[in-house]
Amino acid sequence: MPQAPLASKDGSLFRQVLKCYETKQYKKGLKAAEQILRKNPKHGETLAMKGLITNSLGRTEEAFAIAKEALRQDMKSHVCWHVYGLLYRSEKNFEESIKAYKMALRFEPESQQILRDLALLQVQMRDYPGYVESRGKILQGRPQLRQNWTGLAVAHHLSGSYAEAENVLKKYEETLKNPPSKGDIEHSEACLYRNVVIAESGDIARALEHLESVAKVSLDKISVMEYRADYLLRLDRKEEAEKAYRALLNRNSEKRQYYRGLERSMGIDPEDRKALKAIYDEFTEKNPRSDAPRRIPLDFLKGEDFKQAASVYLQKLLKKGVPSTFANIKALYADAAKREMILELVEGCLASMGTEEEAPTNGETNGDKSKPSEFKLWTLYFLTQHYDHHRTRDTAKASEYLNQALELSPSTVELHMTQARIYKHSGDFQKAMEKMNQARELDTKDRYINTKCAKYQLRNDRNEDALKTMSLFTRNDAHGGPLGDLLEMQCVWFITEDGESYLRQGNLGLALKRFHAILKIFDDWTEDQFDFHSFSLRKGQIRSYVTMLRWEDTLRSHPFFVRAALGAIRVYIMLHDRPHLAHSSLSNGNREGTDFEGMSPADRKKALKKAKREQQKAQEKAAELAAKAKEDKARNAQVSNADGEMKKEDTDPLGNALAQTKEPLEVAMRFLAPLLELSPKRIEVQCAGFDVYLRRKKWLLALKCLIAARELEKENPVVHEQTIRFRRAVDSLADEDIKEPSREVLTAELESILPKETDLKSYNEGFLNSHKDSPKHVHGALRARHLLNPEDANIADELANTLSLENLTLKEAIEGQTLLTDLKAENKDYNQKASERFPDAAAFQTTA
């Protein structure tokens, strides 16, 4: 039965509870709720509000218990069910939250607040049919608000019902008694949004017609011009499209998209370089200061035409003293002929300076000879970068040109940064870090150089130094210090680099801590959509809102998420294969190099006990330091953020709990699933998927990843090694390991990839002979050979032979060293030979 209504005084108190919750006066609201409950201990709605306020105070378990009691007292109260849904939403359990909201609507179907909350969750979960239904009910309840009409149109649009979406927008426009004012931004955006919907439905002719009709009332003139040019081109009305793109280029002559549109509208063959160049010459003459009409022709010109255009372009930038000149043209280095011509031109510029009297430049005017020639300085800088580029790397020549530049201008920051980069590419990360720090000290107020210095410190595994460097630009009084501020500011590049550094050092706990921090940041970005579902409709920014939703759908294909996820998967695979690595002192990356796997069972037991004791001491020490820091902060200031929300204490600062998970492969799936969904074209993702599924004995899923990887790059060395590994694993399967018809499918598919009767050793040797000039492929074949014959004593010698290959890179040489370590082979001779090939590389320096 429905509960009796509260007395007048208690009803007033209940309204005060609601107001206190809305204004975040939680303690006052809780006191008022308890006052009501003293007289009415079984009043369900008051209990529900008490639970909601309790949850806001951080006592989640207690809040759920109170909310359940409220439902027991009043199962038919929409308030109780609504609160129950809000509690689940705060815990990000959106499915249960939606169920609770729907129950609330059974008892109060007209509630706008519950409908809005339900609609927010439905669009967040991409339940577009449900979102359409909820938006329709909201519109029926309050049809006078434009945002409700727009919300329903967006719901139809996202669900693919373009005609319905357009019809909703059209009907609202028909209800307007007075035309909107010229400055009505919301109406302007709604008109353009309707135009986008028409265009996405495929009716381009009608989209153009509609655009022409709304162009006068639209405030976003650039979008109108861009849409019009695009529609005309798609309708093959090329003369009009050409005029439209020329109008756009007259407004912005730097946008490449406009030039591409102009080329297509003029019907110029991409091979007709003379006609293409004529376009850019025209805009160069019109816009003498524009860069794009000078730079773009360098992409398609060849031979003497390219040389002439490149000469003009390079001299203009070098004489002007533009530090980013090399960055502007390095994309051309993929073409060997262009690369040689660029070098010839720049060296010619440098040679001419020794024989001809230079014209005055930025740094040398009115007879002032005290400053260096800008032209010569940046020409030397360009040549330094040329010889440091991976396609033309010659660190000796790069250093020679750089030293000449430093003699001209010893205090130029870019020169010192490039010197650090040269050391990095030669493999001396310590010197690279030191040089980058010297560059930072030349300009301590520059955040960019500060960031570069921290990055170099992380690459050299100096994590504390990197954090100290970053602290120069962070709020060090934030909860958790500089690292806490970087986490709060979601500085993904630092957290990812920090995690990869700890992984290199073998500190798997802290590596996982950082990778999970990246996972949380991306979860937060997903949850941040909540703020925009209602805000964008209220402000009328619909086109940007739809673009944001589509971007969010592919969010976890972001390069930093991919890096962090692959790093985490690698760690969890290591923990599955060698559980002792959960204890940092037993990991292969530790400084003492404990060989746990080479110990006897008794020694292993002792080492494991010792590692656990050391880890417990480290945890206790970390807890003491955290407690001391907390006391110091409490002594000087309140440990709370601006809105009064208390920060949660980190109970696992070293990541030991993450590393000691009992089901590492299950946790790895949290990282793997979004990668396979959103980045299936990345071969490293498919290889990671294979490794995880193989260990989980999900044979068909492992096969699926292997097939996808082979479609991407059949001759990839990792894929080759995984193919052999999978063939061996399937051949050794017992009847109970996989049942029919799965076994039949598995056998048939694998037979088409690598037949069962194939001699795996011969197959592997054939792969090795086919790719004997590729270090990566040799590494993959040798890893597979070790799998087939662990006693093979020739692997180390053959691996050392790769060091004589001309195309060997430093990274590949280090990978060879890592392979020897993984195979537990002697690497002294390899290191000696590698140090002769890469004399500055610290990785191959051995101590006597």
From TrEMBL:
The keyword Ion transport does not apply. Pfam families: NatA_aux_su (PF12569), TPR_16 (PF13432), TPR_8 (PF13181). Residues 613-635 have a biased composition (Basic and acidic residues). InterPro entries: NatA_aux_su, TPR-like_helical_dom_sf, TPR_rpt. GO terms for cellular component: NatA complex. SMART domains: TPR. Residues 583-653 are annotated as: Disordered. Keywords: Receptor, Repeat, TPR repeat. It comes from the Eukaryota. TPR repeats lie at residues 78-111, 413-446. Gene3D superfamilies: 1.25.40.1010, 1.25.40.1040. PANTHER family: N(ALPHA)-ACETYLTRANSFERASE 15_16, ISOFORM A, N-TERMINAL ACETYLTRANSFERASE-RELATED. This is NMDA receptor-regulated protein 1-domain-containing protein.
